[in-house]
Design brief:
single chain; about 675 residues; alpha+beta; 8-stranded antiparallel β-barrel; globular; propionyl-CoA carboxylase; ligase; Biotin_lipoyl; manganese
Length: about 675
């Protein structure tokens, strides 16, 4: 077994590898850029080596820099994590020349599966089901139209070297094929330096389901069931689960056996994933093979009990797999939510800055449920503009899918993040969405269910009344504390009444509160009663309550006469008045937000790269106004309507804050 390994990565996956290495007694080496000097993976590792400046192309993906760190520390093996150099055959070759083990597959498997055309040909030869299509080189748009007609519309035009949705178009007719072919070719050339294009049948009602495989160097290879990854945004996964709520045992077995056949066809060892697209009739087709550890591997670990990172290390050290296919079962259900530093209320734009508060839910591992949080950040740490905006991977496990979902809801509500924008409200909304609960979703779920983006949710009546009862009881606790403040004037005793009016989601709820030692009973005006129990203390930002025997977790902020509450994807102001003050409050005029319709505001912290207009210009709807760079992504800001530019307040190169005024209009 290795004595020391280097992790050629950062963030949560580096921390994850360190945990497994530590479990089997292996020392670890972290590498870091200047931006990651104080990162969690650097703190956790036994040694750490600086490898360059913050941009990945000056540090984490510079093979020479990583090799230097290996030589300096005497590491015997390297785990690449995912992303960066994890699927780089040249890196695997460099390690081989140095006599250092690569904790991953052979470089030949990486090369074969890294090219979409080559991988599909190998899959076909291995009798793996593939999407009908044309794998040869396509010369021009006329040939593309001819091929598309033979396959049958709709078709998918894809870049051979593509990934992340780049170089990909869907065409429903000849005209769209002509346009899509040239656009995909141009995009592929600029993104990957490879303009080869292929065309295949576009599968309707598609689900993205992948099979985890694991092989050793002794010819053994098994599949560890599937993961459902259909909930995606812009071809990036957001929610994953294992097993899939859609597959039956026969389809699972067929997909698993084909995935193993493909792995063996390329001499695969280590952990890898074979991705399939599955239609509404459970017909499945090979998409690609990822020759690395997947982001979503924890859900597989939770239902199989197999530590995939540990097995990757052992396989790289020459050990045989300690189990066979018959030993792999499915125990319960696991769900993973990817927590990102992106603001769902602003079109999921990336958010950078310092984590002023980072309190994930407590990790739990019992016989009836598990809460697991894989992360690479800490409170007080910074989300950098240079790397992927992932904060954490929150996972839950339980014996059934419904139980796993319910534990995930509570865990999301218990997750405290402040200082940056994050997608926790959106994830909570997905967990409560009827289509997700039913398991009847496709890869178009987010685009179909949130076509105009995410603007929060309104709680259904039953959930709203639970929040009303809880906040009313909390308000009473806060009022009692205020009566006990010392230094009051004589003869001015303050009494806490029993009757209140709670206003939430533009609804009024008269309630009567009667407290006892165990909690409070809240009776609504219509006679319904809720029992609330809690040890919440005024000032606590998180309230964990029990309402009618069921848990309720609220993120709480104090506002005048009430609370700012966040739960289940909803954010609402809850006002709690005495009946008389409620009457008077109803007469008060509503304070309207300031009118910013004649301003261009910066939607995220970032650098102003370019201003595309000048003062005095008349611009049309949809015209580009400015470009903001954040997390190495350029975001073009466009005019929402026809206007004239009267003033420009910022210049290219300026660092801008959220809502900073970039320009003003007439």
């Amino acid at each position: 077994m290795f004595r020391k390994i280097l992790i050629a990565n950062r963030g949560e996956i580096a921390c994850r590898v360190i945990k497994s290495a530590r479990k089997i007694g292996i020392a670890t080496v972290a590498i870091y850029s200047d931006a990651d000097r104080d990162a969690l993976h650097v703190r956790m590792a036994d040694e750490a080596v600086r490898i360059g400046r913050p941009p990945a192309n000056q540090s984490y993906i510079v093979i020479d820099n990583v090799m230097r760190a290996i030589r300096e520390t005497g590491a015997e093996a390297v785990h690449p994590g995912y992303g960066f150099l994890s699927e780089n055959a040249k890196f695997a070759e460099a390690l081989e020349r140095e006599g250092v083990a690569f904790i991953g597959p052979p470089k030949g498997a990486i090369e074969a599966m890294g090219d979409k055309i080559t991988s599909k040909k190998i899959a076909m030869e291995a009798n793996v089901s593939t999407v009908p299509g044309y794998m040869g080189l396509i010369g021009d748009a006329d040939e593309a139209v001819k091929i598309a007609g033979e396959i049958g519309y709709p078709v998918m035009i894809k870049a051979s070297a593509g990934g992340g949705g780049k170089g990909m178009r869907i065409a429903w007719n000849d005209q769209e094929t002509r346009e899509g072919f040239q656009s995909s070719k141009n995009e592929a050339a600029s993104s990957f330096g490879d303009d080869r294009i292929f065309i295949e049948k576009f599968v309707t009602k598609p689900r993205h389901i992948e099979i985890q495989v694991l092989g050793d160097t002794h010819g053994n290879c098994v599949y560890l069931n599937e993961r459902e990854c259909s909930i995606q945004r812009r071809n990036q996964k957001v929610v994953e689960e294992a097993p899939s709520p859609f597959l039956d045992a026969a389809t699972r077995k067929a997909m698993g056996e084909q995935a193993v056949a493909l792995a063996k066809a390329v001499g695969y060892c280590s952990a890898g994933t074979v991705e399939f697209i599955v239609d509404g009739e459970r017909n499945f087709y090979f998409l690609e093979m990822n020759t690395r550890l997947q982001v979503e591997h924890p859900v597989t670990e939770l239902i199989t009990g197999v530590d995939l990172v540990e097995q990757m290390i052992r396989v790289a050290a020459g050990e045989k797999l300690p189990f066979g296919q018959k030993d792999i079962g499915i125990n319960g259900w696991a769900i993973e939510n990817r927590v990102y530093a992106e603001d769902p209320y602003r079109g999921f734009l990336p958010s950078i800055g310092r984590l002023s508060r980072y309190r994930p839910p407590a990790e739990i591992a019992t016989a009836d449920h598990v809460v697991r949080n894989d992360t690479g950040v800490y409170e007080g740490g910074e989300i950098s503009m240079y790397y992927d905006p992932m904060i954490a991977k929150l996972c839950t496990w339980a014996p059934t899918r419904a139980q796993a979902i319910e534990h995930m809801r509570v865990a999301l509500d218990s997750f405290e993040i402040e200082g940056i924008g994050h997608n926790l409200p959106f994830l909570s909304a997905v967990m409560d969405h009827p289509k997700f609960i039913s398991g009847d979703m496709t890869t178009a779920f987010i685009a179909e269910e949130y076509p105009d983006g995410f603007s929060g949710v309104d709680l259904p009546q039953e959930a709203l009344r639970r929040v009303v009862a809880a906040t009313a009881a909390m308000h009473r606790v806060a009022e009692i504390r205020r009566t006990r403040v010392s230094g009051r004037m004589d003869n001015h005793e303050r009494r806490v009444g029993t009757d209140w009016v709670v206003i939430a989601q533009n609804q009024r709820f008269p309630v009567a509160i009667r407290a006892d030692r165990g909690g409070a009973t809240v009776e609504f005006g219509d006679g319904t009663i809720h029992r609330v129990e809690s040890d919440w203390t005024p000032g606590d930002p998180l309230a964990t309550l029990d309402v009618d025997g069921a848990p309720l977790v609220l993120k709480v902020g104090k506002i005048t006469a009430g609370f700012r509450v966040r739960t289940r994807g909803a954010a609402l102001d809850v006002r709690i008045y005495t009946p008389r003050i409620a009457e008077l409050a109803a007469l008060m005029p509503e304070k309207l937000p300031p009118d910013t319709s004649r301003m261009l505001l910066c939607p995220m912290p970032g650098k102003l790269v370019a201003v595309a207009v000048s003062e005095g210009d008349e611009v049309q709807e949809g015209q580009a106004l400015a470009t903001i760079e954040a997390m190495k992504m350029e975001n073009v800001l466009r005019a929402e309507k026809k206007v004239r530019v009267t003033k420009i307040n910022a210049a290219p190169g300026d660092s801008l804050a959220v809502d900073q005024i970039i320009m003003e209009f007439e």
